[in-house]
Amino acid sequence: MTDEQQDEQFYRDTESVAFPKLDDHQLSLLEPLGKRRVLKRGELLFKAGQRDVGLAIVLRGGLEAFEQRDGVEQILGTAHERDFLGDVAMLQGTSVLATARVTSDETEILHVPATELRRAFAELPGVSETIVKALIMRRKRLRRDREFAGLRVLAAAGTREGSQLDDFLDKNRIPHRLIEFESEQGQALSKRLHLTTRDLPALITPAGAPLRRPSLREVAQVAGLLRPLAFEDQSEIMSDLTIVGAGPAGLAAAVYAASEGLHTVVLESYAPGGQAGSSSLIENFFGFPTGISGGDLTWLAQLQAYRFGAKFSTPAQALSLDYYATDEYRTCLQVEGCSAVLRAKAVLIATGADYRRLDAEAREQFENMGVYYAATAMEGQLCRNETVIVVGSGNSAGQAAMYLSEGAAKVLLVIRGKDLSKMSSYLSRRVQVQKNIEILYQTQIRKMFGGKKLEQIELENTQTGERRQVRTPAVFSMIGAKPCTEWLPQEIERDDKGFIKTGVSVAEAPAWQANKHQPSPLETSLPGIFAAGDVRSGSVKRCAAAVGEGGMAIAGVQLRLASSS
């Protein structure tokens, strides 16, 4: 079956989920939340790029959603009686991807505003299940659509800046296309928009306007990822719980906290998912017998948190934390790009850990141009029919090697030690029997070579001293990470490797000596501040363990808030 035939089969199989009709009971539940409107042919309901758009349910007449690109319209969907027009952006509050207009002489709709829609998602399961499943499926169909463009990144072939924008949008699940400046399409686009190489990379917005050499924050603003935490006249923002980091622990905590009614703010410095989000396939996660990609797992978790009312801001890095033990809102966070102070009754630190860098000559030159820290579909395309290198001996390395072996001619798994004892046994057995995976024990990368992109590496067997060179376009580094704790005050105690200490190991800390309570298992040396996931000392470095800790942390948060009230 060709790719096109597989796509057609997928669209047929998912049609009923993506485009359900609402029944009388569902309409009756939504009616009090919305307002009826009568529209005339050609009227626009919303435009691509708008945020916080509500849901439009057709009572009579018709609507259509379309993308306008370079003067050409592509119809993305139509809606008639009992249909609704919407996309996942309505759940997230991000920028909508299409424009909607009236197609009949007169159309009557029930318009449910964004705030009421999110309330319905949280409180009306009889409606929310149907709508949320449809919105998710529509986004999956859209990402598979070869004609749909979404945001467009115009960049010179093989440049680090273009690859970074592509990676940022990809990991944040924003539909987009990377267009090479040198291609026929790129030349036509640059000529029409009067763009030259010094303007690259450029982001083409849904309205067709170019954003020249944008920062990640500017890209996030266009995509609607960077939500303003405060109004212009606000000097302080209040929350029950602020979660710093949206890996598995942070996302799980966001779901549980928001579902319990806590006003929850989540700060993520790059993209939700953490290291788990970069895993091509997680096969030992509870409830997924055939496995699930880390990106899909964490994206669905984020949507679940949105559904319960959690607020996300990306990229938004916490810069510092101040602590006032006697205040109700005891923590004050300074956030990148925000003039207001974010005050919280409780904080969960779930910042995870940064990837460790290979100690190889010229490695810096090839960051994101041959040296990668994730093996997803985007990176996998670069390695088809090539020899690729995976460095590491843990589960992340094993998962990457297995995934890449599907398309690569050969995978060299480079391991500093003598065995695969750090890897789960099921995975190590699979790696060892895979025909196109070769395991190189007691081996390290010493040098990297190439022009703009990586072309070759030099390997050394540390036992014999023998060196050899291997041609490869990609090295995947999975050698562990160091905790992201540099921004925290000294009062939050850490172990000798920088991981945050919690529970009984901080019971003798000064703040707890002066407190009548004992720290809960995931509470730090400062009461009301918690740590979960890879950043915590003694945590099990597994996705499921991080999810469990995220949920467990919220039990501690509720206990602390109750004792403080």
Write a concise keyword list for the protein shown above.
565 residues; alpha/beta; 15 helices
Give the structural class.
alpha/beta
Major beta-sheet overview: 7 strands, mixed
Radius of gyration: 25 Å
The number of distinct helices, counting runs of at least 4 residues, comes to 15
β-strand amount: 25-35%
Uncertain segments are none
Query: What percentage of residues falls in helices of 4 or more residues?
Result: 25-40%
End-to-end separation in angstroms reads: 63 Å
Shape: globular
Mean pLDDT: 92
- In total, how many beta strands? 29
Q: Can you give a write-up of this model?
A:
The protein contains 15 helices and 29 strands. With 565 residues, the chain is α/β, with parallel strands linked by helices. The strands form seven sheets. Strands 13, 14, 15, 16, 17, 18 and 29 form a seven-stranded mixed sheet that branches. Strands 20-27-21-22-23 form a five-stranded parallel sheet. The protein is globular, with a radius of gyration of 25 Å. 43% of the residues are buried. The model has no long low-confidence stretch (mean pLDDT 92).
Please provide a brief summary of the model:
This protein is α/β, with parallel strands linked by helices.
Helices and strands, with pairings:
Blueprint: H1 3-18, H2 24-30, E1 35-40, E2 44-46, E3 55-60, E4 63-69, E5 72-79, E6 84-85, H3 88-92, E7 99-102, E8 106-112, H4 114-123, H5 125-144, E9 151-155, H6 160-171, E10 176-180, H7 184-192, E11 202-204, E12 210-212, H8 216-223, E13 236-244, H9 248-259, E14 264-267, H10 294-307, E15 311-313, E16 318-323, E17 331-335, E18 341-349, E19 353-355, E20 371-372, H11 377-380, E21 387-391, H12 395-405, E22 410-414, H13 425-433, E23 437-440, E24 443-450, E25 454-461, E26 467-471, E27 475-477, E28 481-483, H14 510-513, E29 529-531, H15 543-564
Parallel strand pairs: 9-10, 13-14, 13-18, 14-15, 18-29, 20-27, 21-22, 21-27, 22-23
Antiparallel strand pairs: 1-8, 2-7, 3-6, 3-8, 4-5, 4-7, 9-11, 11-12, 16-17, 17-18, 19-28, 24-25, 25-26
Helix pairs in contact: 1-5, 4-5, 9-10, 9-15, 12-13
